[in-house]
Amino acid sequence: MIELKNLSYYYGKSTVAALDNVSARIGNGVHLMLGENGAGKTTMLKCMAGLLLPTGGECLVDGVSVTRRLPSELARVFYLGVDDGAFMKNIDTMVKRHALFYPRFDAEELKRNLDAFGLSSSQKLSSMSLGMRHKAMLAYALSLNTEVLLLDEPANGLDIESKMTLLRMIAGKCDDEHTVLVATHTISDMETLYDGLIVMQANHIRLSAMTEEVAERFAFVRTLSKVDDSLYSEWRGGKMCSILPVDMADELGLESGPVDYAVLYGALHSPAAPEVIKYMTGPCRSDYKPFSNGVDYE
Amino acid sequence: MQQESPRNRDRFSWSGVLDVAKFWWPVLKWEFWILLGYTLLVSVLAISIDTHVLALMWSLAVSPIAYVVMFASSLFGLKSMRERFITLPALNSEKLVFTLLWTFVVIPCISELIVNAVFYLYWGQSENEVLMRMIEAPDGVADMSMEHMTVFKYWSVVIMMCGMMICLYCSTMSRSHNIIKGIGFSVLVYSIPSFLIGVLAGLVGYSLGKKGALTGNVNVEEAVNRLFDSMGIYVGGFCVVMLIYFVVMLTLYIRKFAKRQG
Amino acid sequence: MNFNDNIPISRQLVEYCYAQVMTGGWPCGERIPSTKDLAVTLGVNPRTVMKAYDELAEAGIIYQRRGMGYFTADDARETIIKKRRETFVRNTIPELRRTMDELGYTPQDIMNMLND
To answer: Residues 78 to 107 of A: which have CB under 8 A from any B CB?
Structure first.
């Protein structure tokens, strides 16, 4: 579990906060971190990885602060950045000289991942295309089997088939032992995966909740015409996508589809945001209360 | 697949330092082999040519070595490696020890040991002694005493250490343009004091010369000796200052290493 | 498997499982993929698969054997057909009735269409 407590980060001598007093609790499972470029996603991930030391507040992984940069802590987290290219000649070299620092590295898993992407471990990374290199790094990152895996725009530049392969690989990491954070500014066809959602905006966390909590409070409907009294709606793919409180959807006899992250994201960036957030703290449909992230009030 | 008997990685160990070395080797091996190869080449060439020619060519031939030694730590500034290094699951102390050993022990040793080894095997003398012999070659060049040589030798070592230290510091600590900063500041730290000494030597020489001219006493050899005597003191002073600078930078490096930003 | 945007994923998974049983992809009385295996195959969150499996177990279509995994019930097909019939009577028929009224078709018209 990752805990952020009043985390702040200022780059260099800047007076503008890249991260402004951010607090959240992120449990096991796969989480989606949504936010525009510059909203603070990368900074947050880098703080969690121990790459950046926060200016204020702290970041704890299973109760231990990452800022101490102890090997036992660093071995539990792996960060793969957006333009993280290869840092060694090929995957074989990485296994020989880097994976030895990660006690849970699984060579067989690496082989399976590389095969799934159709790559070889001896191929020179510099001679690969951007997409191929990215896939190789993803294959490697996943095989390190760290408890926390931080992926910045992992689906970037991947074709549909590779995205599906990646999806399957990450799905294999959805258990009590792993926390995977996928940061992106576009929903990339991986919606079926997420346990939790974090929406970042202007260096704050706008919303941090489990998918189930969202699904129990909101109905995501697609209709041909606007639904009156919806909290938020937008035109998307030829249909009107709306967010309604569950009770209202029940009353109107409308069935909810899966949580639509794109629409939710739109809602949180619209004037309807405060309403939406208010509903998150309200009662939900069932009595079943999963592990809660806590919701941030703006 | 688990690694066998995991040692406690949260305690300093030399095998930890070795693992760090393994991590860096693909990058550092280039400067290692190039330095080794070039030094060997130059040393072997030195023993096979005429002493007079050697005297002229030596400083030219070895200056690349000096640069490589001074800028060796700039490779620690390579962006992708630097970031992976910060999050590498090894102790900060292990990482620190490795960078210091590489910069101040391994790299200088390659150049020094090889030259001295080759010279010793061939002439039975160390590099210093050989250089002394070259300088004494009868060419009308003034005879510098061993004492003078020593001070200047100390100076060249100290100023070199300062250059290496600032290069190491900038490469590892700075977040952007760290390699450029490392090499740039290194050049500055190396050149500015040397320039000042040069200016000082000029001033001292001028005032001594003026004195000599006024008294009508123009013994060149004695004048030069007096110049070197005075300069010796000044250079000695500079040595102390730069040594303090080195110690300060080293302390800063050690203290700030664990807290550098990625 | 392509996912529909209109129906909750767990429901779509349940339909998927029904299809597997009905087509014989999951033979009755035999072991079916674990929640994790199915999750990885389809690229969905194992928790969602778990929900679907819970629903199926409750309906008696699959059952869990401690330490051995999930199995299809021997009468799974019959159960599914029964469920489908219930849905048909509860939802499809009223829906058809409504549409008939809207379009002005009588039951006799429908019979004729079906017999063609």
So the answer is: 78-79, 81, 84-89, 93, 96-98, 100-107
